[in-house]
Design goal:
The chain has twelve helices and 22 strands. The chain is an alpha/beta fold. It has two domains: 2-36 and 77-110 and 245-324, 3-Layer(bba) Sandwich (FAD/NAD(P)-binding domain); 117-243 and 336-376, FAD/NAD(P)-binding domain, CATH 3.50.50. α1 packs across α10 (302-317). It is globular, with a radius of gyration of 22 Å. It binds flavin-adenine dinucleotide (FAD). Flavin-adenine dinucleotide is lined by residues 6-12, 34-37, 43-44, 46-47, 79-80, 104-106, 109, 114, 117, 158, 248, 251, 285-287, 293-296, 298, 339. One of its GO terms (molecular function) is electron-transferring-flavoprotein dehydrogenase activity. This is Apoptosis-inducing factor-like. Keywords: FAD, Flavoprotein, Oxidoreductase, Signal.
Length: 379
Protein backbone atom coordinates (compact mmCIF):
# COMPACT_ATOMS: atom_id res chain seq x y z
CA UNK A 1 0.00 0.00 0.00
CA UNK A 2 1.31 3.43 -0.90
CA UNK A 3 0.41 6.59 1.02
CA UNK A 4 1.43 9.78 -0.75
CA UNK A 5 1.63 13.00 1.26
CA UNK A 6 1.79 16.24 -0.70
CA UNK A 7 3.51 18.91 1.40
CA UNK A 8 6.08 18.33 4.13
CA UNK A 9 5.06 21.19 6.41
CA UNK A 10 3.73 20.80 9.92
CA UNK A 11 0.39 19.20 8.97
CA UNK A 12 1.86 16.68 6.51
CA UNK A 13 4.78 15.62 8.70
CA UNK A 14 2.76 15.43 11.94
CA UNK A 15 0.34 13.07 10.15
CA UNK A 16 3.26 11.10 8.64
CA UNK A 17 4.79 10.72 12.10
CA UNK A 18 1.55 9.44 13.65
CA UNK A 19 0.80 7.03 10.79
CA UNK A 20 4.38 5.79 10.87
CA UNK A 21 4.13 5.07 14.60
CA UNK A 22 0.68 3.42 14.36
CA UNK A 23 1.68 1.25 11.39
CA UNK A 24 5.16 0.39 12.65
CA UNK A 25 4.65 -3.34 12.10
CA UNK A 26 3.01 -3.02 8.68
CA UNK A 27 5.72 -4.02 6.20
CA UNK A 28 3.42 -3.46 3.24
CA UNK A 29 3.04 0.29 3.85
CA UNK A 30 5.28 2.84 2.15
CA UNK A 31 4.93 6.57 2.68
CA UNK A 32 6.18 9.17 0.21
CA UNK A 33 6.33 12.87 1.08
CA UNK A 34 6.57 15.20 -1.92
CA UNK A 35 8.03 18.49 -0.70
CA UNK A 36 10.34 20.86 -2.59
CA UNK A 37 12.22 22.07 0.48
CA UNK A 38 15.13 20.06 1.89
CA UNK A 39 14.39 21.32 5.37
CA UNK A 40 11.57 21.69 7.87
CA UNK A 41 10.66 25.18 9.10
CA UNK A 42 8.47 26.19 12.03
CA UNK A 43 6.49 29.03 10.40
CA UNK A 44 5.45 30.86 13.57
CA UNK A 45 9.12 31.43 14.43
CA UNK A 46 10.06 32.74 10.98
CA UNK A 47 9.44 36.45 11.69
CA UNK A 48 11.63 36.26 14.79
CA UNK A 49 14.32 34.53 12.71
CA UNK A 50 14.71 37.75 10.67
CA UNK A 51 16.24 39.39 13.74
CA UNK A 52 17.65 36.58 15.87
CA UNK A 53 20.03 34.07 14.28
CA UNK A 54 19.61 31.65 17.20
CA UNK A 55 15.93 31.36 16.30
CA UNK A 56 16.82 30.99 12.62
CA UNK A 57 19.11 28.08 13.45
CA UNK A 58 16.55 26.27 15.58
CA UNK A 59 13.36 26.92 13.60
CA UNK A 60 14.87 25.39 10.46
CA UNK A 61 16.11 21.81 10.52
CA UNK A 62 17.25 19.26 7.95
CA UNK A 63 14.56 16.97 6.54
CA UNK A 64 17.05 14.12 7.01
CA UNK A 65 16.49 14.41 10.80
CA UNK A 66 12.87 13.45 10.18
CA UNK A 67 13.70 10.69 7.70
CA UNK A 68 16.23 9.11 10.07
CA UNK A 69 13.46 8.62 12.62
CA UNK A 70 10.84 7.51 10.09
CA UNK A 71 12.42 4.83 7.88
CA UNK A 72 9.16 4.04 6.05
CA UNK A 73 9.10 7.60 4.69
CA UNK A 74 10.75 8.57 1.40
CA UNK A 75 11.16 12.25 0.58
CA UNK A 76 10.95 13.41 -3.02
CA UNK A 77 12.11 16.99 -3.51
CA UNK A 78 9.63 18.28 -6.06
CA UNK A 79 6.36 20.15 -6.44
CA UNK A 80 3.15 18.47 -7.47
CA UNK A 81 1.79 20.07 -10.63
CA UNK A 82 -1.33 17.97 -11.13
CA UNK A 83 -3.44 15.52 -9.19
CA UNK A 84 -6.10 13.02 -10.25
CA UNK A 85 -7.98 10.43 -8.16
CA UNK A 86 -5.09 7.97 -8.38
CA UNK A 87 -1.94 9.74 -9.55
CA UNK A 88 0.19 12.89 -9.26
CA UNK A 89 2.53 14.52 -11.74
CA UNK A 90 5.59 16.32 -10.40
CA UNK A 91 7.37 19.38 -11.80
CA UNK A 92 10.25 17.09 -12.88
CA UNK A 93 7.82 15.15 -15.11
CA UNK A 94 7.71 12.09 -12.83
CA UNK A 95 4.32 10.43 -12.21
CA UNK A 96 3.48 8.66 -8.95
CA UNK A 97 0.43 6.53 -8.28
CA UNK A 98 -1.01 6.09 -4.80
CA UNK A 99 -3.57 4.10 -2.87
CA UNK A 100 -4.31 6.97 -0.50
CA UNK A 101 -3.19 10.60 -0.74
CA UNK A 102 -3.03 13.31 1.93
CA UNK A 103 -3.01 16.93 0.76
CA UNK A 104 -1.08 19.24 3.10
CA UNK A 105 0.18 22.02 0.86
CA UNK A 106 -0.56 24.95 3.17
CA UNK A 107 -1.36 28.42 1.84
CA UNK A 108 0.45 31.38 0.28
CA UNK A 109 1.02 34.46 2.43
CA UNK A 110 1.25 38.01 1.08
CA UNK A 111 4.74 38.39 2.59
CA UNK A 112 6.90 36.55 0.04
CA UNK A 113 9.71 35.42 2.35
CA UNK A 114 7.12 33.24 4.10
CA UNK A 115 6.52 31.33 0.84
CA UNK A 116 9.78 29.39 0.69
CA UNK A 117 8.21 26.68 -1.48
CA UNK A 118 8.03 29.11 -4.43
CA UNK A 119 11.77 29.55 -4.88
CA UNK A 120 12.96 26.29 -3.28
CA UNK A 121 15.72 24.78 -5.39
CA UNK A 122 15.41 21.01 -5.64
CA UNK A 123 18.97 20.46 -6.84
CA UNK A 124 21.18 21.94 -4.11
CA UNK A 125 22.33 19.84 -1.18
CA UNK A 126 20.45 19.81 2.10
CA UNK A 127 23.22 21.86 3.76
CA UNK A 128 23.18 24.44 0.95
CA UNK A 129 19.39 24.69 1.09
CA UNK A 130 19.43 25.25 4.85
CA UNK A 131 22.24 27.77 4.65
CA UNK A 132 20.61 29.77 1.90
CA UNK A 133 17.28 29.81 3.77
CA UNK A 134 18.97 31.08 6.94
CA UNK A 135 20.89 33.68 4.90
CA UNK A 136 17.63 34.84 3.30
CA UNK A 137 15.96 35.20 6.70
CA UNK A 138 18.87 37.25 8.08
CA UNK A 139 19.00 39.39 4.91
CA UNK A 140 15.30 40.17 5.32
CA UNK A 141 15.92 41.51 8.84
CA UNK A 142 18.96 43.53 7.69
CA UNK A 143 16.97 45.02 4.83
CA UNK A 144 14.28 46.14 7.27
CA UNK A 145 16.82 47.74 9.60
CA UNK A 146 18.41 49.52 6.62
CA UNK A 147 15.13 51.30 5.82
CA UNK A 148 14.45 54.68 7.40
CA UNK A 149 10.68 54.22 7.37
CA UNK A 150 8.59 51.08 7.04
CA UNK A 151 4.90 50.85 6.20
CA UNK A 152 3.21 47.58 7.16
CA UNK A 153 -0.18 47.06 5.54
CA UNK A 154 -2.36 44.63 7.49
CA UNK A 155 -2.63 44.46 11.27
CA UNK A 156 -3.41 40.77 11.61
CA UNK A 157 -1.20 38.60 13.79
CA UNK A 158 1.65 38.58 11.25
CA UNK A 159 1.66 42.36 10.62
CA UNK A 160 1.37 43.19 14.31
CA UNK A 161 4.09 40.76 15.45
CA UNK A 162 6.36 42.01 12.68
CA UNK A 163 5.82 45.72 13.47
CA UNK A 164 6.60 45.10 17.14
CA UNK A 165 9.67 42.98 16.34
CA UNK A 166 11.12 45.63 14.02
CA UNK A 167 10.58 48.31 16.67
CA UNK A 168 11.78 46.13 19.56
CA UNK A 169 14.88 44.62 17.96
CA UNK A 170 16.01 47.86 16.27
CA UNK A 171 15.78 49.60 19.67
CA UNK A 172 18.31 47.06 20.99
CA UNK A 173 20.80 47.96 18.24
CA UNK A 174 23.13 50.91 17.74
CA UNK A 175 22.52 53.16 14.77
CA UNK A 176 19.42 54.70 13.19
CA UNK A 177 16.06 53.05 13.83
CA UNK A 178 13.39 52.73 11.15
CA UNK A 179 10.08 54.43 11.92
CA UNK A 180 7.25 51.89 11.66
CA UNK A 181 3.67 52.63 10.56
CA UNK A 182 1.00 49.93 10.75
CA UNK A 183 -2.20 50.47 8.75
CA UNK A 184 -5.12 48.14 9.37
CA UNK A 185 -8.60 48.22 7.84
CA UNK A 186 -10.31 46.50 10.80
CA UNK A 187 -11.50 48.23 13.94
CA UNK A 188 -8.95 46.43 16.11
CA UNK A 189 -5.60 44.76 15.58
CA UNK A 190 -5.39 40.95 15.30
CA UNK A 191 -8.97 39.87 14.46
CA UNK A 192 -8.51 36.60 16.37
CA UNK A 193 -8.34 38.58 19.64
CA UNK A 194 -11.36 39.88 21.51
CA UNK A 195 -11.61 43.70 21.69
CA UNK A 196 -10.16 43.97 25.22
CA UNK A 197 -7.05 41.94 24.41
CA UNK A 198 -6.62 43.76 21.10
CA UNK A 199 -6.65 47.11 22.93
CA UNK A 200 -3.88 45.89 25.23
CA UNK A 201 -1.85 44.82 22.20
CA UNK A 202 -2.50 48.18 20.52
CA UNK A 203 -1.18 50.02 23.57
CA UNK A 204 1.91 47.81 23.77
CA UNK A 205 2.67 48.34 20.08
CA UNK A 206 2.19 52.12 20.38
CA UNK A 207 4.44 52.19 23.46
CA UNK A 208 7.17 50.72 21.28
CA UNK A 209 6.90 53.71 18.97
CA UNK A 210 4.84 52.13 16.18
CA UNK A 211 2.31 54.51 14.57
CA UNK A 212 -0.98 52.64 14.17
CA UNK A 213 -3.92 53.63 11.96
CA UNK A 214 -7.07 51.54 12.42
CA UNK A 215 -10.08 51.45 10.06
CA UNK A 216 -7.82 52.88 7.39
CA UNK A 217 -6.39 51.84 4.06
CA UNK A 218 -2.98 52.71 2.65
CA UNK A 219 -3.11 53.71 -1.00
CA UNK A 220 -0.31 54.37 -3.47
CA UNK A 221 -0.25 57.38 -5.82
CA UNK A 222 2.74 57.96 -8.09
CA UNK A 223 5.03 55.86 -5.92
CA UNK A 224 4.03 57.62 -2.67
CA UNK A 225 1.78 56.27 0.06
CA UNK A 226 -1.22 57.98 1.70
CA UNK A 227 -4.02 57.20 4.14
CA UNK A 228 -7.12 56.75 2.02
CA UNK A 229 -9.55 58.70 4.23
CA UNK A 230 -7.48 61.85 4.72
CA UNK A 231 -4.84 61.80 1.99
CA UNK A 232 -2.28 62.15 4.80
CA UNK A 233 1.14 61.04 3.46
CA UNK A 234 2.80 58.00 5.05
CA UNK A 235 6.57 57.75 5.23
CA UNK A 236 7.40 54.52 3.43
CA UNK A 237 10.92 53.69 2.41
CA UNK A 238 9.94 50.02 2.55
CA UNK A 239 6.39 48.68 2.18
CA UNK A 240 5.46 45.26 3.56
CA UNK A 241 2.06 43.69 2.89
CA UNK A 242 0.76 41.21 5.44
CA UNK A 243 -2.84 41.16 4.35
CA UNK A 244 -3.93 37.58 4.05
CA UNK A 245 -3.52 33.96 3.03
CA UNK A 246 -4.37 32.55 -0.38
CA UNK A 247 -4.92 29.03 -1.73
CA UNK A 248 -2.20 27.32 -3.79
CA UNK A 249 -4.23 24.37 -4.98
CA UNK A 250 -4.05 25.04 -8.73
CA UNK A 251 -2.63 21.55 -9.27
CA UNK A 252 -6.18 20.26 -8.66
CA UNK A 253 -7.83 22.50 -11.22
CA UNK A 254 -7.67 20.03 -14.11
CA UNK A 255 -8.38 16.66 -12.50
CA UNK A 256 -10.31 17.59 -9.36
CA UNK A 257 -11.72 21.10 -9.76
CA UNK A 258 -15.04 20.04 -8.21
CA UNK A 259 -13.15 19.36 -4.96
CA UNK A 260 -12.20 23.04 -4.59
CA UNK A 261 -14.56 25.63 -3.13
CA UNK A 262 -15.34 29.00 -4.78
CA UNK A 263 -12.21 30.58 -3.32
CA UNK A 264 -9.90 27.68 -4.20
CA UNK A 265 -9.57 25.95 -0.82
CA UNK A 266 -9.79 22.14 -0.76
CA UNK A 267 -13.21 20.96 0.41
CA UNK A 268 -13.30 18.29 3.12
CA UNK A 269 -16.04 16.41 4.95
CA UNK A 270 -16.10 15.99 8.74
CA UNK A 271 -13.45 13.26 8.48
CA UNK A 272 -10.90 15.23 6.40
CA UNK A 273 -11.94 13.35 3.21
CA UNK A 274 -12.03 15.29 -0.03
CA UNK A 275 -15.46 14.88 -1.66
CA UNK A 276 -15.57 13.22 -5.07
CA UNK A 277 -12.40 11.14 -4.53
CA UNK A 278 -13.98 7.82 -3.47
CA UNK A 279 -12.64 8.23 0.05
CA UNK A 280 -8.99 7.98 -1.10
CA UNK A 281 -7.86 11.59 -0.82
CA UNK A 282 -7.69 13.48 2.47
CA UNK A 283 -6.68 17.08 3.23
CA UNK A 284 -5.42 18.73 6.40
CA UNK A 285 -3.93 22.04 7.55
CA UNK A 286 -4.02 25.42 5.84
CA UNK A 287 -4.78 24.08 2.33
CA UNK A 288 -8.37 23.20 3.20
CA UNK A 289 -11.46 24.74 4.73
CA UNK A 290 -11.72 22.17 7.54
CA UNK A 291 -10.71 24.25 10.55
CA UNK A 292 -9.14 27.61 11.43
CA UNK A 293 -5.77 27.95 9.74
CA UNK A 294 -3.47 27.56 12.74
CA UNK A 295 -0.47 25.43 13.52
CA UNK A 296 -2.33 24.06 16.52
CA UNK A 297 -5.03 22.68 14.20
CA UNK A 298 -2.58 21.60 11.48
CA UNK A 299 -0.67 19.42 13.94
CA UNK A 300 -3.55 18.67 16.32
CA UNK A 301 -5.54 16.96 13.54
CA UNK A 302 -2.85 14.31 13.15
CA UNK A 303 -4.50 11.63 15.31
CA UNK A 304 -7.86 11.86 13.54
CA UNK A 305 -6.26 12.01 10.09
CA UNK A 306 -3.95 9.08 10.87
CA UNK A 307 -6.80 6.94 12.20
CA UNK A 308 -8.93 7.60 9.12
CA UNK A 309 -6.10 6.95 6.67
CA UNK A 310 -5.12 3.69 8.37
CA UNK A 311 -8.76 2.52 8.27
CA UNK A 312 -8.94 3.44 4.60
CA UNK A 313 -5.74 1.54 3.76
CA UNK A 314 -7.09 -1.48 5.63
CA UNK A 315 -10.37 -1.34 3.68
CA UNK A 316 -8.53 -1.11 0.36
CA UNK A 317 -6.36 -4.07 1.29
CA UNK A 318 -9.58 -6.06 1.80
CA UNK A 319 -10.92 -4.82 -1.54
CA UNK A 320 -13.64 -2.81 0.23
CA UNK A 321 -14.69 0.62 -0.97
CA UNK A 322 -13.49 3.21 1.57
CA UNK A 323 -16.38 5.47 0.56
CA UNK A 324 -18.70 3.63 2.96
CA UNK A 325 -16.41 3.34 6.00
CA UNK A 326 -18.02 4.09 9.35
CA UNK A 327 -16.51 4.98 12.72
CA UNK A 328 -14.09 7.51 11.24
CA UNK A 329 -12.60 10.19 13.52
CA UNK A 330 -14.14 13.64 13.23
CA UNK A 331 -12.40 17.01 12.84
CA UNK A 332 -12.38 19.36 15.84
CA UNK A 333 -10.95 22.81 16.57
CA UNK A 334 -7.94 22.92 18.92
CA UNK A 335 -7.95 24.66 22.32
CA UNK A 336 -9.29 28.25 22.25
CA UNK A 337 -5.97 29.90 23.11
CA UNK A 338 -4.42 32.57 20.90
CA UNK A 339 -0.93 33.79 21.63
CA UNK A 340 0.88 36.74 20.09
CA UNK A 341 4.28 38.26 20.80
CA UNK A 342 4.63 42.04 20.95
CA UNK A 343 8.35 42.57 20.49
CA UNK A 344 11.08 40.47 22.08
CA UNK A 345 9.83 40.75 25.66
CA UNK A 346 6.07 41.16 25.73
CA UNK A 347 2.93 39.65 24.29
CA UNK A 348 -0.60 38.55 25.02
CA UNK A 349 -2.34 35.20 25.42
CA UNK A 350 -6.09 35.11 24.93
CA UNK A 351 -7.42 32.20 26.97
CA UNK A 352 -10.85 31.13 28.28
CA UNK A 353 -9.76 32.83 31.55
CA UNK A 354 -9.08 36.21 29.94
CA UNK A 355 -6.25 38.04 28.18
CA UNK A 356 -2.98 37.30 29.98
CA UNK A 357 0.28 39.19 29.54
CA UNK A 358 2.18 36.63 31.62
CA UNK A 359 3.57 33.88 31.60
CA UNK A 360 2.71 32.35 28.17
CA UNK A 361 3.95 35.35 26.11
CA UNK A 362 7.31 35.26 27.92
CA UNK A 363 7.57 31.51 27.27
CA UNK A 364 6.84 32.11 23.58
CA UNK A 365 9.48 34.85 23.44
CA UNK A 366 12.04 32.59 25.09
CA UNK A 367 11.37 29.42 23.08
CA UNK A 368 9.12 30.41 20.15
CA UNK A 369 7.51 27.03 20.96
CA UNK A 370 9.85 25.34 18.50
CA UNK A 371 10.04 22.41 20.91
CA UNK A 372 6.28 21.95 20.52
CA UNK A 373 6.53 21.52 16.74
CA UNK A 374 9.49 19.16 17.09
CA UNK A 375 7.56 17.06 19.59
CA UNK A 376 4.57 16.77 17.24
CA UNK A 377 6.88 15.59 14.44
CA UNK A 378 8.64 13.04 16.65
CA UNK A 379 11.95 14.95 16.54
C1 LIG B 1 4.45 34.18 10.54
C2 LIG B 1 3.46 33.15 10.98
C3 LIG B 1 3.08 33.10 12.31
C4 LIG B 1 2.18 32.12 12.75
N1 LIG B 1 1.85 32.07 14.07
C5 LIG B 1 1.08 31.05 14.52
C6 LIG B 1 0.81 30.90 15.90
O1 LIG B 1 1.26 31.69 16.73
N2 LIG B 1 0.03 29.86 16.29
C7 LIG B 1 -0.48 28.96 15.40
O2 LIG B 1 -1.16 28.00 15.80
N3 LIG B 1 -0.25 29.08 14.08
C8 LIG B 1 0.51 30.09 13.62
N4 LIG B 1 0.77 30.22 12.28
C9 LIG B 1 0.08 29.32 11.33
C10 LIG B 1 0.76 27.97 11.20
O3 LIG B 1 2.14 28.10 11.04
C11 LIG B 1 0.13 27.25 10.02
O4 LIG B 1 -1.26 27.12 10.27
C12 LIG B 1 0.73 25.87 9.79
O5 LIG B 1 2.10 25.96 9.51
C13 LIG B 1 0.01 25.18 8.63
O6 LIG B 1 0.65 23.97 8.37
P1 LIG B 1 0.51 23.30 6.93
O7 LIG B 1 1.35 22.07 6.97
O8 LIG B 1 -0.90 23.22 6.54
O9 LIG B 1 1.17 24.36 5.95
P2 LIG B 1 2.71 24.72 5.80
O10 LIG B 1 3.39 24.67 7.12
O11 LIG B 1 2.72 25.99 5.03
O12 LIG B 1 3.30 23.55 4.91
C14 LIG B 1 2.88 23.33 3.59
C15 LIG B 1 4.00 22.64 2.84
O13 LIG B 1 3.54 22.25 1.55
C16 LIG B 1 4.58 22.46 0.60
N5 LIG B 1 3.96 22.64 -0.72
C17 LIG B 1 3.23 23.69 -1.16
N6 LIG B 1 2.81 23.47 -2.43
C18 LIG B 1 3.29 22.25 -2.79
C19 LIG B 1 3.20 21.46 -3.98
N7 LIG B 1 2.52 21.87 -5.06
N8 LIG B 1 3.83 20.26 -4.00
C20 LIG B 1 4.52 19.80 -2.90
N9 LIG B 1 4.63 20.51 -1.76
C21 LIG B 1 4.02 21.71 -1.70
C22 LIG B 1 5.31 23.70 1.10
O14 LIG B 1 6.65 23.73 0.66
C23 LIG B 1 5.21 23.54 2.62
O15 LIG B 1 6.36 22.95 3.17
C24 LIG B 1 1.65 31.19 11.82
C25 LIG B 1 2.04 31.25 10.48
C26 LIG B 1 2.94 32.21 10.06
C27 LIG B 1 3.37 32.23 8.62
Amino acid sequence: MHLLIIGGGLAGLAAAHTIHRSAAKDDTLTITVVEPKAYIEVPWATLRAFFDCRVSETCTMPMSNFLAKHPKVTHIRAKVTSLTKSEVTLDNGQKLSFDVCLLATGARKSLDILNAYVSASTSDSEEQALESRRDALAATGKNMFAASSILIIGGGAIGTELAADIAGFSAMQNGPKPSVTLVHSGNHLVPELRAKGATKVLNMVKDMGVKVHLQEKAIEKDGKWFLESSDQPIEADLVIKTTGVYPINDFMKVGLSHSLDDRGWVKVDDHFRVPGTEGRIFAVGDCCDALQKTGVNAMGSKTAVAKNIIKTLRALRQNMSPDFLTGLATKAEGPPVFLITVGPKKGLAQTPFGALTWPLPQLKNRTMFIFRAKMELGL
